[in-house]
């Protein structure tokens, strides 16, 4: 009996132990499942939160797009109104021209003249003249003269003053009649002579003679500077000696052309005299100057440089034609 009870106790203990082990395993498995479910719930919650955030962001973007559409619509309406207003203004201008006899060119000329009265515009123009004319044309002269820093600055300012005399009065010419232009040309001449006198005092006689050489060849030096800039793109820049020879060739050919009895000097003529015959005569003269320049240039330019010069002078001729025809149209071709 005792063995039976002992055996039962042992069996019960074993069964309970096995049951406990099974319960532990079951509990562990449930905990793992619970942890996985909790992770899934957390992940789902995060996804839901992200979705809400994305929805809020998307809603905000939609709102911004609606605002942009509204702004564009408003801009379109404003632009349409402006176009309509400009059209009305153009009609008014056209009507006014019929009444007053003023052309669009007249109004453009008057506008430029008024702009030149502004101190800001004049300062800007001086800066442009220094970079596009004084430095390229007279740069080597500054080196040759070996002036002090103070004298160099004074010389530079006098050059700018001299150029501004021509620019300022030249702008006024665009809205003047022939008699007024003649008076303005006389003012330019007097103004330039006064400044030249100051330059002579500054540089002395020897320095002034060098300055006159540069001043007389200013047009040719400007052209050579443009040509050399183009050559620089292909590594064919002129040497200083070649540059001076080309300047001399262009200048001497111009002087030779000027000896002709029927030479038309566009620089000294009144723009109102630029009729078709005068324009064509000036263009033929320039063609002859270019041909003589090319003949001389063969002696000191390389083949590649010569070909570039031929093309450059052709383009320069086209620019001159456009300028003359523009002047003819603006000043009436002999009508003013």
Describe this structure in words.
Among the domains are: 103-216, no CATH class; 218-336, no CATH class. It has helices at residues 2-100, 104-115, 119-145, 149-173, 178-216, 218-232, 240-258, 276-297, 303-331. Residues 1-25 and 93-99 have low confidence and may be disordered. The protein has 9 helices and no strands. The longest helix has 99 residues, at 2-100. It is mainly alpha-helical and 336 residues long. α3 (119-145) runs parallel beside α5 (178-216), α3 (119-145) crosses α6 and α7 packs across α8 (276-297).
Helix count equals 9
Biggest sheet record = none
Helical content (DSSP H or I, runs of 4+): over 70%
The shape is elongated
The sequence of SSEs as H and E is HHHHHHHHH
Beta-strand portion reads: under 5%
Total E-strand runs: 0
Please state the CA-atom Rg, rounded to the nearest Å.
Answer: 43 Å
User: What is the end-to-end distance?
Assistant: 150 Å
What structural category arises from helix and sheet content? mainly alpha
Poorly predicted runs of 5 or more residues: 1-25, 93-99
Q: What's the overall average pLDDT, rounded? A: 76
